[in-house]
Automatic annotation (TrEMBL), chain A:
The keyword Protein transport does not apply. GO terms for biological process: Mo-molybdopterin cofactor biosynthetic process. This is Molybdopterin synthase catalytic subunit. Belongs to the MoaE family. InterPro entries: MoaE_sf, Mopterin_biosynth_MoaE. Heterotetramer of 2 MoaD subunits and 2 MoaE subunits. Also stable as homodimer. The enzyme changes between these two forms during catalysis. Pathway: Cofactor biosynthesis; molybdopterin biosynthesis. It comes from Paenirhodobacter populi. It comes from the Bacteria. Its EC number is 2.8.1.12.
Length: 144, 87
């Protein structure tokens, strides 16, 4: 298991070298990149709560490992200032079978979105705007 | 009311911007998070502005998500922030 909160970019290929664990038969990876929702975004700023972020991410990852019997899990989440198209976070799950790996990856993403203490701010030509959480994000947790 | 205790209060995102500082050490006798919010709001309008709508806010006690009715006894760090937007 590897949990990382960092401002530096990551190399997903390098991160996945050696990832999997004993007994793995399937690996699912997800990479989130900065999207230009408004079409006018110049940068995205991500603030986080040092200490709580690592704790929350570890707790979420441990729950995924327990529920889907994962053989390995990787969560990297960046903070700081980003340009459109930059990689912001990645998740990898390894399990004996693909269904568990896919489900665990979705679970991780749903929980990281609403339970990991990050806040996004969009920087545009007319000013700055905190991105509000969506009700759908909270609803997404109910299926787990 | 409980015995006055020193507590770290931290703010994130627009709560931090509205209050104008990222953290402060305060001494309080507040028994619950809600009591602490009331105490802060009585201080200055910028606190009242940040805490105007509690349904738009979340609270963490010693880095664990909690709620406004939670007791503060033994708590060292209280954090206020909007709903999280990770991922």
């Amino acid at each position: 298991m590897r949990i990382a909160v960092q401002s530096a970019p990551f190399d997903s290929a390098a991160e996945l070298a050696g990832f999997g664990g004993a007994g793995a038969g399937a690996i699912v990876t997800f990479t989130g990149i900065v999207r230009n929702d408004s079409g006018e975004m110049q940068a995205l700023e991500l603030e986080h709560y040092p200490g709580m972020t690592e704790r929350a991410m570890t707790a979420i990852a441990e729950e995924a490992v327990a529920r889907w019997s994962l053989t390995d899990v990787l969560v990297i989440h960046r903070y700081g200032r980003f340009a459109v198209g930059e990689q912001i976070m990645m998740v990898a799950t390894a399990a004996r079978h693909r269904k568990a790996a896919f489900e665990a990856a979705e679970f991780l993403m749903d929980y990281l979105k609403s339970r990991a203490p990050f806040w996004k701010k969009e920087i545009g030509p007319t000013g700055e705007n905190w991105i509000a959480a969506k009700e759908a994000d909270e609803d997404a947790l109910k299926r787990w | 009311m409980t015995e006055p205790a020193g507590i770290e209060v931290v703010y994130f995102a627009w709560v931090r911007e509205r209050i104008g500082l990222p953290r402060e050490s305060i001494t309080t006798s507040a028994a619950t998070v809600a009591d602490l919010v009331e105490e802060l709001c009585a201080r200055e309008p910028r606190y009242a502005a940040a805490f105007a709508d509690l349904s738009a806010l979340r609270v963490a006690l010693d880095q664990e998500l909690s709620d406004f009715s939670a007791p503060l006894a033994g708590v060292r760090e209280v954090a206020f922030f909007p709903p999280m937007t990770g991922g």
